[in-house]
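Deliverable D5.2: sample structural annotation.
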Amino acid sequence: DVPLTIAVARYYGDDYVAIAEGAKVDVLIGTVPGASQEVTTLRPFAKLTLDAPVTALSFSPKGEYMLAQAGAQFASYEIEHQRNSNQTITVDEGQAAPQLVWLDAAHVWNNANGSVTMRDFNGLNVHAIMKAEPGYSASLSQNGRYFYSIGKAEDGRYQLQRVKMILN
């Protein structure tokens, strides 16, 4: 009866398997056996615990970060430096916490309280980028210069929105 979630990634020649069982997350390192291999070399690498059962578990696109989310709380784990961080998403009272989605190799985004919010993988550097309609996706351009989402104009029509990402 305990929720079970699994995510797998490959980073610098090693396989990483994250297994969330309830509120506990175990990260294993080694080699996941293939069709012609029967023996696994997976061994314990890291452990994380959240305050509630994990509802979403994923690795970043390049495999260097793991993210576990339980409602508004989330924990990230940095594979290379073996560091973890626990943070909370701020949502309006009565609102369900949105799931964090990988935006690129090191950033996640969510759409909460009518705003697309971007943050570093560890929950730091939180920025509300633009107003957006709930339930729609957002995307960063391939070169990282523009952030796109769907919003509503004053006349009620849906529109594609773009924000230029400026580095200072």
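Annotation notes: The radius of gyration is 18 Å. The chain has no helices and 15 strands.
The annotation will be released with the project's public dataset once the embargo ends.
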